[in-house]
Design brief:
The chain is about 30% helix and about 30% strand. The chain has helices at about 65-70, 80-115, and strands spanning about 5-10, 15-20, 25-30, 35-40, 40-50, 55-60.
C-alpha cells in the first residue's frame, strides 16, 4: 500500500490551492462546479455535493479516447520532405483547432460558473 498526500488551502472564496505528491494545482469556482488548472492540463469539474457523483472533462486538448476514434486513411507514398512539411502544417492546424475548442469550452464553463448559484439559474451545467 502506498502513502498519499493531499492538502487544499482556500485562498479566497471560490479559489483553492491544491498541493499533493504529484504537484500543485489551482481550482476556481464554487463547490460542485469548478475549473482546475494543473501541469497535466485544464479540467472542468461538475458534481452533486454530498453524493460522490461527479463528471470531469479536459478543456485544453482532446482526451486519448477522442484522439483514438479518428480513423486513419492510408495515403499515397510521399517523399521525406513532403511528409515533414505536411506534418508541420497539419500539427499547426490541429493545434489551432484544439485551441479554439478549448477556448469555447472554457468560455462556456466560466459563464456557467458566473451564473451558478444566482437567482433564476437552474443549477444545471451543460458542456459540449
Amino acid at each position: 500500500m502506498a502513502f498519499r498526500f493531499s492538502r487544499t488551502i482556500r485562498l479566497f472564496p471560490g479559489i483553492r490551492l491544491n498541493i499533493s505528491k504529484s504537484g500543485i494545482s489551482t481550482s476556481l469556482g464554487p463547490r460542485g462546479a469548478s475549473v482546475t488548472v494543473r501541469k497535466r492540463g485544464i479540467y472542468a469539474n461538475t458534481g452533486i455535493p454530498g453524493t460522490g457523483m461527479s463528471y470531469r472533462t479536459r478543456l485544453d486538448k482532446k482526451s486519448p479516447r477522442q484522439a483514438d476514434t479518428v480513423s486513419k486513411v492510408p495515403s499515397k507514398k510521399k517523399t521525406k520532405n513532403q511528409t515533414s512539411a505536411n506534418a508541420k502544417h497539419e500539427n499547426g492546424k490541429a493545434a489551432a483547432e484544439n485551441s479554439q475548442v478549448a477556448s469555447k469550452r472554457l468560455e462556456n464553463v466560466l459563464s456557467d460558473l458566473k451564473a451558478f448559484g444566482q437567482p433564476g439559474h437552474g443549477q444545471t451545467l451543460h458542456y459540449s
